[in-house]
UniProtKB/TrEMBL annotation:
InterPro entries per record: CheY-like_superfamily, FAD/NAD-bd_sf, FAD/NAD-binding_dom, Ferredoxin-NADP_redctase_2
Domain of life the protein comes from: Bacteria
Keyword Flavoprotein recorded: yes
Stretches that traverse the bilayer: none
Example GO molecular function: thioredoxin-disulfide reductase (NADPH) activity
UniProt name for this protein: FAD-dependent oxidoreductase
Keyword annotations of the record: Flavoprotein, Oxidoreductase
Keyword Nucleotide-binding: no
FAD/NAD(P)-binding domain ranges (all copies): 250-557
Pfam families for this protein: Pyr_redox_2
Reactions mediated catalytically: [thioredoxin]-dithiol + NADP(+) = [thioredoxin]-disulfide + NADPH + H(+)
């Protein structure tokens, strides 16, 4: 059995490749030296002077099933040569990180800047890397190390912190993998009965789970879980699923741990408010499923939604915020100026103010034949963990928002073809331009406008999808292996007390909308994010009239804290 240090199972023993292409022999040697110094123990470093040699290297690595982690290409190569190398690395090694090598100060050159921006906009590169100008160039090392870390998260060959073993068509197995991905927990999937799964089972001394699911956590003491619930997985990983303190009284109760809820937790706890966050599914909400968010301030080469969410979670935790995950607030009422909430399987808590940040869910297709295949080729949301399984297959994404665009581009790295289906005439009204440009440039992506999914099916797994043209009613059935539905926005607010005003679609009224509601009974106007129930605030996607963007949600979550302070002061003075 091949193994990691200590005998742990792994897929391949050959070291992954770091490839650098530079026509200048002296600069190429410097890059090779720096790469070998920083990464030579775990990676093979190879330098090539010409595009032809680099292409040959990439093709041989593909033929021999060798892993390529990072490809660095000199921006000074002829345009055609540079494009050919980047295209080959993208096609043959879709998990590899790709970057342009540029000289210090070259960003001021318009031609160089244009090449970088153009290559990033269409997904040819992930970013640029400044060439090392001295020995032990730590900036160069750090940039490449970040690329390596990003690559390692997608590389299926690596032994991960969590290993999931289940049948390939196991709905529960897929749900567990999705849960781990959405919560930013690195994991690897081993199909039951495969040599890889058998290696793991032999190492840990466990039988094949058959129709069940086995979860092994080598990073946290080697815990082995048989058919675990979501809460059991979270607890084994060290995620809080119950109150860590015996004191059930809080200043602020935040319901939902998406971008808005996490921002509220960070700012409230940093300002001394005792804060509790309750999340029923995964940290990050819908944003946490995004494979790459490129237009969030401060992350110039983009960031995965789950990583952004994990950073927010850790930041709030450092400030002292309390979290209860995988649990649901099942009842909320206000008595004697305080909010009383019941958390399922946890108990009762009280708070002086409540922030509702529950976000929205995607609307169901209402196609019975497809609903039967949820988890077996049909997914609601961007199931990033399924992309590898669709290599060289056909995928379809339904939806016209940014999340749908990000899912399309992620799937396009692996799939033979990705079809984007939208109800509108084009994408301009609902999707950011940088995503539209990248979709237009992707050769294996097409857009079907003014269309909707009306049917589909398969023998135990999705095999086909039927589309209807909304303009003429014509229907067409296409071979599709993976369907990702990301349409509509349904707020889960039916559980709220009647005193909380909502619009016809269920979004929570706030500010001036709440002030004109007959449910508002205070002798003052409500604050901008305050609902018709004084002291209960709504932020993010669940709020009526909100802008459906991550940055907007974070902004609302931070701003609402000042309104909470005002509410607490007024309540204390009353």
């Amino acid at each position: 059995m091949g193994g990691e240090p200590g005998g742990r199972p792994r897929l391949r023993t050959a070291r992954p490749l770091l490839l650098v292409v530079d026509a200048d022999p002296e600069r190429l040697e410097r890059c090779e030296t720096e790469l070998d110094r920083g990464f030579g123990a775990d990676f093979r470093v190879r330098g090539e002077l010409t595009a032809a040699a680099a292409l040959d290297c990439l093709r041989r690595a593909h033929e021999w099933e060798q892993r390529v982690a990072v490809v660095l290409v000199d921006h000074a190569l002829p345009d055609a040569d540079r494009a050919e190398v980047l295209a080959a690395s993208r096609t043959l090694h879709p998990d590899a990180r790709r970057a342009l090598l540029i000289e210090w100060g070259a960003w001021a050159d318009r031609t160089t800047a244009s090449a970088i921006l153009s290559a990033m906009s269409v997904g040819d590169i992930n970013y640029y890397v400044l060439k090392p100008w001295i020995g032990h160039d730590e900036l160069f090392h750090r940039t490449v190390a970040e690329f390596v870390q990003e690559w390692s998260r997608y590389e299926v060959a690596n032994l991960r912190e969590v290993v999931v073993i289940a049948a390939g068509n196991s709905v529960r197995g897929q749900a567990v993998r999705s849960l781990l991905a959405r919560n930013g927990i690195p994991s690897a999937f081993r199909e039951s009965g495969s040599p890889l799964a058998n290696d793991v089972l032999k190492y840990i001394g466990e039988p094949d789970p058959g129709a069940g699911v086995l979860v092994w956590m080598p990073a946290v003491g080697g815990a082995v879980l048989h058919d675990p619930t979501d809460a059991e997985i979270a607890e084994a990983w060290g995620v809080p699923t119950t109150l860590e303190s015996e004191d059930p009284e809080f200043d602020v109760l935040v319901i939902g741990a998406g971008p808005a809820g996490l921002a509220t937790a960070v700012y409230a706890s940093s300002e001394g408010l005792r804060t509790l966050v309750v999340e029923q599914e995964s940290i990050g909400g819908q944003a946490g499923t995004s494979s790459l968010i490129r237009n969030y301030l401060g992350f110039s080469r983009g960031i995965r939604g789950s990583e952004l969410a994990q950073r927010g979670y850790q930041q709030a935790w450092v400030f002292g915020a309390h979290f209860v995950l995988m649990r649901t607030v099942v009842q909320l009422e206000k008595r004697d100026g305080r909010f009383h909430a019941v958390i399922g399987d946890v108990g009762d808590v009280t708070a002086r103010a409540v922030v509702l940040a529950t976000g929205v869910a995607y609307r169901r297709l209402d196609v019975p034949s497809l609903e039967k295949l949820v988890g077996n080729g049909v997914y609601y949301g961007a199931s990033v963990s399924e992309a590898h399984g669709l290599k060289d297959r056909y995928a379809c994404v339904v939806g016209g928002g940014n999340s749908a665009g990000q899912a399309v581009l992620h799937l396009a790295r692996y799939c033979k073809h990705v079809l984007l289906v939208i109800r509108g005439e084009d994408l301009t009204a609902s999707m950011s331009q940088y995503l539209i440009d990248a979709i237009d440039a992707a050769e294996n992506v097409s857009v079907r406008a003014s269309s909707e999914v009306v049917g589909g099916g398969g023998d135990g797994r999705l095999q086909q999808v039927t589309l209807r043209d909304r303009r003429n009613g014509n229907e067409e059935t296409l071979p599709i292996d993976g369907l990702f539905v990301m349409i509509g926005a349904v707020p889960g607010t039916s559980w709220l007390p009647d005193e909380v005003g909502r619009d016809q679609r269920g979004f929570v009224l706030s500010g001036s909308d709440a002030g004109v509601s007959p449910l508002w009974h205070e002798g003052r106007p409500p604050q901008p994010y305050e609902s018709t129930m004084a002291g209960l605030f709504a932020v993010g996607d669940v709020r009526c009239g909100s802008v459906k963007r991550v940055a907007s949600a974070v902004g609302e979550g931070s701003v609402v804290v000042s309104q909470i302070h005002t509410h607490l002061k007024v309540s204390s003075d009353a």
